[in-house]
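Lab notebook page, bench 4
Experiment: in silico fold of construct C2
Operator: M.H.
Input chain length: 272 residues
Purpose: comparison with the prior construct
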Amino acid sequence: MNLRIVFYFILTIQFILFEFSIGQPNSGNTILSCINPPAGFHRVEIRKNSFAEWLRNLQLKPPESPVVDFRGKIFKSKDDTTVAAVIDWEIKGRRFDQCMDILVRFYAEYLWDKEELEKLNLPLPGKQSLKWTDWEKGFRPKFKGINFDLVKSEKYNSSKKNYNKFLNLVFAESHTQQFYYAYSVIEKQNVQVGDFIVKRGVKGHAVMIVDLAIDPEGNLVALIGQGDTPACEFYLLNYKKDDPWIPLDFSKEIIPLPINKKMTWDGLRRFE
């Protein structure tokens, strides 16, 4: 083959690859790759293909990015010292994706990615729950006060669009408190990556443990993040300026977060 032809062929391939790479997400900009544990600590072991692994590989926005709400308005400025990092997750237009909602959204997206949708069974008022497998078959809740009956009113639909409709219905009807009461209490000594903490009360709240690290003495530190109200991007909290690793002291009931709402260990819960 003519060497000139070979040269131009290689050049063309390189150009195509370069063009394709423009605008593609950098797979290295993740929690795992960008946020190292403190000196003397190492990340706890997690199961491969688990929700914990999925969380560790969430993409981060560039450093010093502000936290933006669902309307595109700045919720936390780039100078806010309580913000350690912002997750690169589309929130625009999703007014229902508030503090607990966005945690459910993460878990639901993980199940979608892993094709384990039969596990998605979410609480609604009246101590009832709604399964995705019923929703995709066309069953819809017909509410009678806070209770409901399932009525077949739609055709089978397993699309992602219908999946999002299912989630939005749960977000609209359910509240943070349902997740406090519907899930089993997790003992704080058994805390895992992917667990969430719910604040009980009228002004409820929820945060999620997205990573854990341990030292040789068994001391634990955690990366903890949250969404908020109004719905905004999920962001990791700083323990103190430029230090996102929050020490977990089980002798104290209150977790030392830089937020006004007191989060306590009695609210520790788990999706699975």
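Observations: The radius of gyration is 21 Å. Confidence is low (pLDDT under 50) at residues 1-26.
Next step: discuss at group meeting.
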